[in-house]
Fold Response regulator.
Amino acid sequence: MKKILIVDDEKYARFLYMEILGKNYEFTEVEDGIEAIEELESDTYDLALVDLNLPFIRGEEVIKQVIGKLKKTKIVIISALKQEELIKELTELGIVGLITKPINDIKELKESVKKWCE
């Protein structure tokens, strides 16, 4: 079973991702940048969904700190904001995708996560 780390400070958002993606994945959820770094450094996940707007350490800083160390875990950013320069910079660092909030197409989200976990 593929393992997904969900990093979002909104409890309902984490719940929603788990409900949408279903029982085909094993989930771990954290709510801030400090916890995210601790979990990501274990590199035991197939995919990490990382919100950019996190308490303590912002999502982009989390990604910049850990992405070079990851061998297995792929990172996808979650954002409600259109931050084209930041997204371009993170893509160059190695993120594999972007999920925009609010989620408008559940089928597309499921298909994208399945592809990213391959």
Summary: The mean pLDDT is 92. The chain has one domain: 2-116.
